[in-house]
Amino acid sequence: MKHLIDQLEADHKLSKDEWIQLIQNRTPELSQYLFEKAQKVRIQHYGHDVYIRGLIEFTNYCKNDCYYCGIRRSNSNVRRYRLSKETILSCCKTGYALGFRTFVLQGGEDGYFQDDIMVDIVQSIRENYPDCAITLSIGECSHERYQKLFDAGANRFLLRHETFNAEHYSKLHPAKLSAKHRQDCLWDLKQIGFQVGSGFMVGSPYQTVENLAEDMLFLQNFNPHMVGVGPFIPHHDTPFKNHSAGTLELTLFMLGLIRLTLPKVLLPATTALGTIAPNGRELGILAGANVVMPNLSPEDVRKDYLLYDNKISTGSEAAESLKELEKRMESIGYHITINRGDSKNMTE
Ligand code: SAH
Question: What is the pTM of this model?
Answer without folding.
Answer: 0.97
